[in-house]
Amino acid sequence: MMMSDSFASAAAPLSVPVGHAFAARARLARLARRASRWRPGLAAQPLHSEIFASGREASGAGLALALMRDALAATGESGDRRQVLWVQERSAIRLGGRPYLHGLPADVRHRVIHVAAKSPEDALFAMEEGLKCRDLACVIGEVAGNPRALDFTASRRLSLAAQRHGVALWLVRLDAAADLSSARMRWRVTAAPSLSPRWNPEAPGAERWQAELFRARGYLTGEWMLSDADGTLRAGRCSEPPDHGDLAGGSAARSLAAG
């Protein structure tokens, strides 16, 4: 049985000019890029982030503090006086030392509860318990290397605890490889030359970090020069790609033709 011409024409798929289809797709892509580009001051902040840094500098802890203060300010909680739980395991303390009270921002220094854990397992337990406490403003953790205890299951437990109770976690990973994780946002950071002071160019400037957002759910990845000179997180363009030699072995980056 042959179909009638009218039925055949109704069943045929609608045709869209190729040029119009590509233009619409490009427009949607531009809108998506504008809507999902990360920048300081965003109200929608992830509750579980990881920061990979060298154990020979304090850039990981510095960026964690800056991101924490930016998140609290963006959500209208800059005046929050709840405590901040800071958990370090023994190897992380050996690499970077404990938080120095007078080196912390004035609005944070008297709110820190410091936990020195003997092992990665103890540190993960303390962080998870802290995430279950809504009387805390947030949790900052520091773990060195890639301990077996910090597998995907442990990472998922941290994410679920943060989401269930609404307490944010910034986990600093010192001298670690970026293994499997459920963290919603993952950074690589190195120290950058400080900004020149306004009145005395010879004086030490404010801290600055060269940061790469290499994984983010809901945001585009990218690289920025971040600074927190006046207590407000600011992002600028990177003039050169970050050097991650401290986070991985340098032999893999060498040319095979090198003599």
Radius of gyration: 23 Å
By DSSP, the count of extended strands is 9
In the predicted model, the low-confidence regions spanning at least 5 consecutive residues are 1-16, 240-259
The description of the largest β-sheet is: 9 strands, mixed
Shape: globular
- Write down the secondary-structure element order: HHEHEHEHEHEEEEE
Distance from N terminus to C terminus (CA atoms, Å) equals: 77 Å
CATH homologous superfamily, by name? P-loop containing nucleotide triphosphate hydrolases
- Proportion of residues in extended strands: 15-25%
Keywords for this entry:
single chain, 259 residues, alpha/beta, Rossmann fold, nine-stranded mixed sheet, 6 helices, 23% strand, disordered N terminus
Summarize the structure.
It contains six helices and nine strands. It is an alpha/beta fold and 259 residues long. The N terminus and C terminus are likely disordered.
Could you please describe the fold and organization of this structure?
It contains six helices and nine strands. The chain has 259 residues and is α/β, with parallel strands linked by helices. The N and C termini lie far apart (77 Å). It has one domain (41-238): Rossmann fold, CATH 3.40.50. Helix 5 (120-131) packs parallel to helix 6. It is globular and about 45 Å long. The longest helix has 19 residues, at 18-36.
